[in-house]
User: Which sequence fits this backbone?
């Protein structure tokens, strides 16, 4: 039996890494890795860096036109969120409280951009 959840998690994590690589220069990071596991290891040690990386990934996702549903999936699978849940045993509701403002802001900006494109 194929585990479709694992495949979708893997695809989301791969997309996160693609966007993170694109966001590196804007964030002023020299090198954080090239795989999800490398990002996870670094942000597990440096949570502030993980939060900045999440914001950079969302900015890059917005530039590339990712819909809010994809942004939500990216944050849910971000190395920062996953390391906080699994390595640091942070409560789920705490991580939800972290992610929801990011997603709400993303959704508002996304919809505003979509409206301005539709008006052109």
Assistant:
């Amino acid at each position: 039996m194929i585990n479709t959840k694992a495949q979708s998690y893997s695809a989301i994590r791969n997309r996160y890494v693609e966007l993170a690589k694109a966001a590196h220069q804007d964030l002023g990071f020299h090198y954080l890795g090239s795989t999800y596991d490398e990002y996870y290891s670094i942000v597990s040690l440096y949570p502030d860096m993980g939060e900045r990386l999440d914001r950079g990934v969302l900015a890059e996702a917005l530039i590339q036109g990712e819909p809010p549903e994809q942004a939500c999936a990216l944050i849910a699978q971000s190395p920062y969120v996953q390391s906080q849940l699994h390595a640091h045993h942070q409560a789920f509701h705490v991580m939800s409280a972290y992610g929801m403002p990011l997603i709400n802001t993303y959704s508002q900006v996304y919809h505003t951009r979509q409206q301005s494109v539709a008006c052109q």
Q: What stands out?
A: Residues 92-119 form the longest helix (28 residues). The CA atoms of residues 91 and 120 lie 45 Å apart. The two ends are 48 Å apart (CA to CA).
